[in-house]
Specification:
Blueprint (H helix, E strand, L loop, with lengths): L1 E5 L11 E5 L2 E5 L8 H4 L15 E3 L5 H4 L2 H6 L5 E4 L1 H28 L13 H8 L2 E3 L6 E4 L2 E7 L7 E7 L2 E5 L23 E5 L14 H12 L4 E4 L5 H14 L8 E4 L1 H12 L6 H4 L13 E3 L3 H9 L5 E4 L9 H8 L6 E4 L8 H6 L4 E4 L2 E4 L3 E4 L9 H8 L8 E5 L3 H15 L5 E2 L6 E3 L1
Parallel strand pairs: 3-4, 4-5, 5-6, 10-11, 11-20, 12-15, 12-16, 13-14, 13-15, 16-19, 20-21
Antiparallel strand pairs: 1-2, 1-22, 2-3, 7-8, 8-9, 9-10, 17-18
Helix pairs in contact: 4-5, 4-8, 10-11
Length: 460
């Protein structure tokens, strides 16, 4: 028997988890956290659908928390198998998972101190210790190398360009070929290479649909970004950029460097207020052979990211002092959806002041502060207190690491023939439906598609 159960990323962009059962063996593809809306987040606390100790292996597509963040809880529940991933994913997991554990513990302490949790006491979903134990299980694998991961199951990783180490999984099992697309990157963007095609004949494909219902703005060489920075600095304000610590920070810094060198923005301090992002930057530099041509050929790859007045913020105390400062500046901080982390310090201070701009450069899931802000919220709840919103709030979707609908179709055209079934995952329902319609219209009637539901199982 070969069965696949959808444990997450169904009609939502978070919680990626797919349970494959074959001949008595269980393999989990991705182990992501649900984020955003409260009903989704509550799934993180529910009993897992099978005993974690019964899972033989986990295979990860990339290091973002909506694909890896449940792994420490899985380990705390008894999982002891190996976790296969690329070397880049392993490196970034070493940053994001312990950091997530620390934040879980800090949030629980803060909730207990301020009394804004209905749980008495509030407990962390998992601890930093759980995260470190999960790191011991990571087994790095090179791209395009077939690797046995469980009895009768072989996986190879194909580079997808979404993030350092990000990959699609090509799985051979029971005489069938299954492709788990992970998150699909962009074409013709700086820093990361283009997603690589998969020409294999697949019996089943899972493809993401985060931006399946839209097209990103065409590349304008940072012109709009530069205008937002120039206007904000001109009125004496700060540009606060909530950015995912791994992935988005690099492109933001790249464009600021390009714009400054072209004298398209004023020379002002650029603060990177995320220790994890600063460390991740070093991984991008050390693995520059996985980046695009500009970085592979650069004599000094790090210099491609650093403006003249670049500063990494070293401590929480320095972060608080920076947030309190009225100096015009650009502040890049995580988390990217404004759900926690040091960016909270900056938003609390920046949002009430109309001189400032809060600029979002990545996807904002439903139920997050980021989504509320881009949808025009006049006040936002932070740490139990409502903060008025008078600052400018803007977004640039073209910096997203997720392919848009046209780029997804471009990647799908790389298959030598339509997969036996294409399951559309990792998107909100309107985006999924739009992508499904585009597939049928643009790629032809030979493409069979399905939009799975949460906990749906299918025999293959």
């Amino acid at each position: 028997m070969l069965r696949l159960t959808f444990l997450g990323a169904t009609r939502t962009v978070t919680g990626s988890k797919y349970l494959l059962e074959y001949d008595g063996t269980r393999v989990l593809v991705d182990s992501g956290l649900f984020q955003g809306l409260k009903p989704l987040r509550e799934r993180n606390w529910a009993q897992f659908q099978v005993p974690p100790s019964s899972i033989h292996t986990v295979v990860l597509t990339h290091a973002h928390l909506d694909h890896t963040g449940y792994l420490p809880r899985l380990v705390a529940g008894g999982f002891r198998g190996r976790v296969f991933c690329t070397a880049g994913t392993r490196d970034l997991c070493r940053l994001v998972l312990p950091d997530a554990g620390r934040l879980q513990e800090e949030d629980a302490r803060e909730a207990n101190k301020r009394g804004y949790s209905r749980h008495r006491p509030a407990d962390p979903l998992f601890t930093e210790g759980d995260a470190f134990r999960s790191l011991e299980l990571l087994q790095p694998v090179g791209f395009d190398r077939a690797m046995p991961v469980a009895p009768g199951i072989e996986v190879s990783f194909r580079a997808m360009g979404h993030l350092l180490g990000a990959a699609a999984l090509i799985m051979r099992v029971g005489g069938k070929t299954l492709v788990f697309g992970g998150d699909l990157g962009r074409y013709d963007r700086p820093v990361l290479r283009d997603p690589e095609p998969i020409t294999d004949e697949a019996d089943l494909l899972l493809v993401e649909s985060t931006y399946g219902d839209r097209r990103h703005d065409p590349n304008d060489n940072g012109r709009r970004f530069g205008q937002i920075v120039t206007d904000t600095i001109g009125r004496g304000g700060k540009v606060v950029i909530p950015a995912f610590a791994i992935g988005r920070v690099e492109e933001v810094l790249y464009w600021l460097k390009q714009l400054e060198d072209a004298r398209a923005i004023p020379e002002v301090p650029v603060y990177l207020d995320s220790p994890m992002a600063a460390e991740a930057l070093q991984f991008y530099v050390s693995r520059n052979h996985e980046l695009d041509d500009e970085f592979r050929q650069a004599a000094r790859p790090l210099a491609q990211f650093l403006t003249r007045r670049f500063r990494a913020v070293p401590s929480t105390e320095a972060s608080l002092a920076l947030a309190a400062s009225s100096e015009p500046a650009i502040v890049i901080s995580s988390s990217g959806m404004a759900t926690g982390g040091r960016v909270m310090n900056h938003l609390e201070r920046a949002l009430p002041d109309p001189r400032n701009t809060v600029l979002f450069v990545g996807y904002q899931a439903a139920g997050t502060r980021g989504r509320s802000l881009i949808e025009g919220a006049k006040q936002i709840k932070m740490r139990g207190v409502y903060v008025p919103v008078s600052a400018q709030v803007d977004r640039i979707d073209s910096m997203s690491a997720h392919a848009d609908g046209g780029e997804i179709l471009r990647w799908l055209r790389g298959f030598s023939k339509p997969p036996g079934l294409t399951c559309i995952v990792h998107g909100e329902l309107p985006a999924m439906q739009a992508l499904e319609a585009d597939i049928h219209r643009e790629l032809g009637s030979g493409w069979r598609t399905r939009v799975p539901e949460y906990l749906e199982s299918m025999d293959l």
